[in-house]
Write a structure and sequence with these properties.
The chain is mainly alpha-helical and 315 residues long. The chain has helices spanning 3-21, 27-46, 57-69, 74-93, 120-128, 135-150, 154-158, 188-206, 225-238, 247-260, 265-272, 277-280, 282-298, 300-303; strands at residues 165-166, 171-175, 181-185, 309-310, 313-314. The protein has 2 domains: 3-93, Orthogonal Bundle (DNA polymerase, domain 1), CATH 1.10.150; 120-296, Intergrase catalytic core (hpI Integrase, Chain A, Orthogonal Bundle).
């Protein structure tokens, strides 16, 4: 490590430790911060900067410009800016920089892709695809039913332990991002498939081996995220669903279908485990797109597709 990095790195390491221990941020978030700030350190080293007190707003602006020049997209640049901003808030609290060091960086708006939920028919085809007469098929059916019933993240699904399930209240206790715990209800379909799997199928998969995890492979080990991704893609293909289906697709479908059915946004936010309701609000745009489609297809003036003459006036 060079002298510049020797001098600049310790505060970054302290910031990452604080974010992990005091803020309780997820491991993936901490690793993303680390990667972003490593680029900042490389840039400052190239500028022969040896102290954080030398890092003014102009240096941060030129760092952002360098990211653009390197071909990073708006979303990646925005994430880097967030990482740097949070580092500077920490450095300010430690008295190492002034509050004016971090500029208000104007970033190009990143296009936010609307989630693509499955239709009700596609959901039914997907959930019916596993062969429940086979042990692994029954496991897969229970996983798909539970995922659609609760909107869990795939990481939360594969990490689910038996102690997290309450069949008395029909809910799961989930530790999500930032170690935040939430209760997520599930319905009778998921309860039926999950009960069958836990009582009859899971013991056959474990073969006497003890495991805290609900969903395991043939060896009794926890099913991996990658393993479940492959499963859901295979079932979507054999079900004849003509779109890319991932575990997150079922999470999107869960949220969208709840809102379409009249659920309020705050309740959906709580079930999804979103810290900020603005993250959940994207599903209102999905619902809005569906309403516009319905309007276009069923409103008489839209449905005609041609202009009409009414009382001698062309519309």
């Amino acid at each position: 490590m060079t002298q510049a990095k020797d001098l600049l790195s310790p505060p970054v390491d302290a910031f990452l430790a604080m974010a992990a221990v005091e803020k309780g941020l997820a491991k993936n978030t901490i690793e993303a911060y680390g990667r972003d700030l490593a680029k900042l350190l490389d840039y400052l080293e190239s500028q022969r900067v040896t102290s954080w007190s030398e890092v003014d707003s102009m240096r941060i602006r030129t760092f952002i410009i360098s990211l653009r020049a390197a071909g990073l997209g708006p979303k990646s640049i925005a994430r880097h800016a967030v990482s740097v901003r949070r580092l500077f808030l920490f450095l300010e609290s430690e008295g190492q920089v002034k509050d004016s060091s971090m500029p208000n960086v104007l970033l190009p708006a990143a296009s936010r892709k609307l989630p693509q939920p499955l239709s009700g028919d596609d959901i039914r085809k997907l959930l019916a695809e596993p062969d429940a007469s086979r042990s692994l098929g029954a496991r897969d059916q229970a996983m798909l039913e539970l995922l659609y019933a609760t909107g869990l993240r795939v990481s939360e699904l594969v990490a689910l332990e038996t102690r997290h399930i309450s069949f008395q209240g029909d809910y799961l206790t989930i530790k999500g991002k930032g170690a935040k715990v939430r209760a997520v209800p599930f319905g009778r379909w998921a309860r039926e498939k999950l009960t069958l799997y836990i009582n009859e199928v899971r013991p056959r998969l474990l073969k006497g081996v003890s495991s805290p995890f609900v969903f395991t492979n043939r060896s009794g080990k926890r099913l991996s995220r990658q393993g479940f991704w492959k499963l859901i893609r295979r079932y979507a293909l054999t079900a004849g669903i003509d779109k890319r289906v991932t575990p997150h697709t079922l999470r999107h479908s869960f949220a969208t279908h709840l809102l379409e059915g009249g659920a309020d946004l705050r309740s959906v936010q709580a079930m999804l485990g979103h810290a900020d309701i603005s993250t959940t609000q994207i599903y209102t745009h999905v619902d809005g797109a569906r309403l516009k489609k319905i309007h276009r297809e069923h409103h008489p003036r839209e449905r005609s597709g041609t202009k009409k003459r009414i009382n001698g006036v062309t519309e």
